[in-house]
Each structure stands twice: as C-alpha cells, then as structure tokens.
C-alpha cells in the first residue's frame, strides 16, 4: 500500500512525454483555491489536449512561456487584460483569437446588467407568462373526478420512459454543443453532473438496463389514486394517511411517488397550480432565455420571452442584438461584426460593444472567433 504523498512523488518522478510544438493554443485560468489563487492552463487546440499548467495568471508568466515556444501562431483567450498583455509581450506576431465561450459569457453578463434595470418589465412578463399558462392549463384540465389518472413514471411503459430520457439527453448535447460547461448544464436542467459528464463523453444515450421494481408505496396505490382524484395533492398528508394503513416507509418515498404522478399528469387538475405559479427567472437565466434557440426552451419560457419583447422598444432592440451576436459567434460570421458594433453602440449594450472593439487583435481589424476546446473542463482532471 502507498500513502498519498508516496503516490504523488512516484507520479511526479515519471518523465513527461515529448509533445509536438504547438501552433494554435488556448489559454484560460484555473483555480488552485477558488476565489483566492489562480493559475493558467494551456491547451493545444489542434490536438485538443492540455499541454501545460502555469502557477499564476500574470502577464509576465504567460509572456515567458510564449517566448519559450516561439512557433505559436494563434492564441485563443478570454477578454482578460493580463493575458492580452502577456501575448503581446511574448508572441507579438501571434493572432489573438476571441474565445467563443467567453464572448457569450460576456454577452450574458451585459444582457443581465440591462435586464437588471428592467425589473418591472421582467416581473410583468413573468405574470403574463404565468397567466397564459394558467388559462391554457385550466381550459385543458378535465374534471378531477372524471379525468383518467396516468401512472407514475415507475409504472410507465419502458418505451415512454426511454422517450423522456432521450429528450433530456438531446437537451444536454444541444447545450454542450453551444459551449455550455457541464456544471451549468447540470444546474440548468436539474440533472446530476456525473450523468451529464457520462452522456457527453459517450456521445450517445447509454442503454438503460435497470430492472423494473415495485415499492412499498405501490401497495397503497389504490388509496393514493383515490385521494388524488378527490383533489388531495399534499404529499405529507398522503404519507400520514397511508401510515395509518400500515405503511412504514419514509416521507420522501411518498413525495417522489406523488411528484412522478404530478409530472405524468400535464392535463390533470394538479397541473393548473404548477403551471399557474410559474416563477420569474433570475436576471442571468432571463439573459440566456432571450438569446436561446426557441427549440431549447419550453412553452412557458417562450411566452415569457414573447411578453418581454412587447414591454419596451429599447429592450426589444437589445434582445434582438443579443440574439444576432450569439448567431454571429456560433456561425463565425466575423464579417458582420462592424455593423453589429455600430448598432450596439446606440443601445444599452454600448459598453459591451466598446469593450469588444477595444479587444480586437486580429488581422485586418476583424475579430477571429474560435471554439474553446476545454470549455467546461476542470484543469485538475484535464
């Protein structure tokens, strides 16, 4: 058995493999200790592999590394001034490429700042979206005493559950394709980060071999379904009731059973309360919604965006410019940058546009754009 220190010493004693001289690299920061100490990771973008870790993110350190690797021709980076200075000092002839992930992150920050000044519009758009959802669900909801009650997810046919799982997988891959970090995908979609990582790495939905199993709650399904039809949606009350009937399980077991039943009943009376209480998104979430592909957001979120677009002409212009910038970056349409900058300078995105223009270091005054090979990856595991 080796202790931790011995294992680390043995690993450090192994000579590093000879690496080909990099020509196109990406640089970004990583944290030794979040919020306190940061280093720099360098990735060979042509071979999609990390090649070095620097102890800090100072311009002098980056410049020294570049001087030791004079064949570097292209450097993809974020908009940090220290990296720009380090590249100019260490590789003055290299083309500095705007990192797509950071460009979109900076756009999101700019849009969030604008939306923060339109709190009233956000609130009213949220009310409009919730009201529309309530009207739709109320009109669609059958009488709770006569509506057919879907089975919980555990009782759904395997093909139906696979369809739900496939849809979640497609969402994950779509967001990953847009450059989203895995942590953000997991947080946004409510999926375990390990699941997101496994799906992204495999590139296809793994076969689900989990065997169908019943639960202690199923023995009380008749009573629970009857109480559901009577309008009882309170998991704690249902749990207490079946406890009196001999159930010995935990509350969260019943809570999961009820949640699956509610999720499987989009047209039941329970859906009215769920859809009608749609909450206002955070400003950062709203900033993502207004530039997102309509196919990646749900109906309530689309109603929110539509309601927001009619609230203010100035806000509508900002949102349209945000969407145009996102499209321009994803499709690498650098030839449209100048006209976009001119339009953005007349709006609340002027500061973002000025900062972007001041950060252009490409040939002919254009801004090269490149996907970040290590987007969302931890430098420690890379």
TrEMBL record:
Domain Transposase IS204/IS1001/IS1096/IS1165 DDE, by residue range, is 25-123
Cite the residue spans of the region called Disordered. Answer: 361-382
Q: Which domain of life is it from?
A: Bacteria
Against Gene3D superfamilies, the record matches this protein to: Winged helix-like DNA-binding domain superfamily/Winged helix DNA-binding domain
Domain (Terminase ATPase subunit N-terminal) ranges: 175-201
A Pfam family in this protein? DDE_Tnp_ISL3
The family database entries (PANTHER family) matched by this protein are listed as: TRANSPOSASE FOR INSERTION SEQUENCE ELEMENT IS1557
This protein is called ISL3 family transposase
């Amino acid at each position: 058995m080796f202790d931790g220190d011995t294992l680390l010493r043995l690993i450090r004693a192994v000579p590093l493999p000879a690496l080909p001289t990099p020509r196109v690299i990406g640089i970004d920061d990583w944290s030794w200790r979040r919020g306190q100490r940061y280093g720099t990771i360098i990735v060979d973008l042509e071979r999609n592999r990390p090649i070095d870790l620097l102890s800090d993110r100072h311009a002098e350190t980056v410049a020294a590394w570049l001087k030791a690797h004079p064949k570097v021709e292209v450097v993809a980076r974020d908009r940090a001034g220290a990296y720009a200075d380090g590249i100019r000092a260490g590789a003055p002839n290299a083309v500095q490429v705007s990192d797509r992930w950071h460009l979109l992150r900076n756009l999101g920050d700019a849009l969030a700042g604008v939306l923060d000044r339109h709190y009233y519009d956000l609130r009213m758009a949220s009310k409009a979206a919730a009201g529309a959802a309530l009207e739709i669900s109320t009109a669609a909801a059958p009488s709770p005493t006569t509506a057919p009650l879907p089975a919980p997810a555990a009782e759904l046919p395997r093909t139906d559950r696979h369809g739900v799982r496939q849809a979640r997988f497609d969402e994950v891959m779509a967001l990953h394709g847009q450059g989203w970090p895995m942590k953000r995908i997991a947080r946004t979609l409510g999926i375990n980060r390990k699941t997101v990582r496994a799906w992204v790495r495999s590139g296809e939905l793994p076969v689900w071999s989990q065997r169908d199993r019943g639960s202690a709650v199923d023995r009380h399904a008749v009573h629970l379904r009857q109480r559901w039809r009577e309008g009882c949606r309170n998991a704690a009350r249902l749990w207490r009731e079946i406890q009196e009937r001999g159930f010995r399980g935990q509350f969260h077991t019943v809570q999961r059973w009820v949640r699956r039943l509610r999720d499987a009943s989009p047209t039941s009376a329970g859906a009215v309360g769920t859809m009608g209480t749609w909450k206002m998104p955070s400003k950062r979430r709203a900033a993502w919604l207004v530039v997102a592909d309509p196919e990646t957001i749900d109906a309530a979120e689309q109603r929110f965006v539509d309601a927001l677009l009619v609230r203010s002409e100035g806000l509508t212009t900002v949102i349209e410019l945000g969407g145009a910038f996102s499209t321009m970056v994803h499709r690498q349409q650098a030839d449209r940058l100048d006209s976009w900058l001119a339009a953005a300078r007349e709006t609340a995105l002027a500061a973002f546009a000025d900062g972007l223009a001041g950060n252009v270091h490409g040939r002919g005054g254009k801004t090269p754009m490149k996907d970040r090979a290590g987007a969302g990856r931890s430098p420690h595991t890379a």
